[in-house]
Amino acid sequence: MSKLNNDILFLILEELSGDIKSLRSCLLVNKTWCEISVSILWRNPSGYFKRGSLNLIISHLSNETKEYLKSEGILSSVILRKKPLFNYVGFIRYLDLTQLEQLLELLLRNVKENKVSNIINEILELFINGNTRVTHLRIPSHFNRQIHLISGADHYFSGLKFLFCSTDDTNQNILEGLSKISKSIRKMELYVLTNNYTGIIKLIEAQKNLNQVWFCCQNQSIRESLEDSLRSRTEIVRHVKLFFN
């Protein structure tokens, strides 16, 4: 079994993508099994993304940043010296900015605010690069980091298939920016928390393969505007769910 063709082995192990415990056992078989299992586990790490996983991401940061985190008692000397075995960030296809932001806020709670911003930006630049593409993206409300302007964003978000966003005034620029990059989104889930929805409209109208839209909105006039935008895409949008609070 250890000498199976890598492509066949990948297809076999991919059947375990929902079984984290079994995939972790596969890490111990040999180098090939380990490499393939890691790539599957890290494709969508949100289900088990904890401090240990965050440490692996931090291990990819610049030496200057790691030294600073060590001086603040956040990063141990072991992690500082340890080189990552894999490019873990490069395997990620599901980017959950909600969860990432929460973990970073907890980890960096005692760090100066200006330093926190710099560290988070450096971590985002690790994710968003010209070498990989993300397929699933979750954006929280009040998220104002202009991820669409990071170098490599044009490539990174070009293959986006699913978007979840709690939309407010702070992230409309992001959605508008994504409308120029991500044109093949198939499914959107939107919580509309603002009267400013220009970014949402532009993102919907830019799509070529949009099939499902789910949105929750309190404001009737906004709902009507979004419905009008969706009606203009009836040739591709097949499923729409509206929730009113």
From TrEMBL:
InterPro entries: F-box-like_dom_sf. This is F-box domain-containing protein. It comes from Rhizophagus clarus.
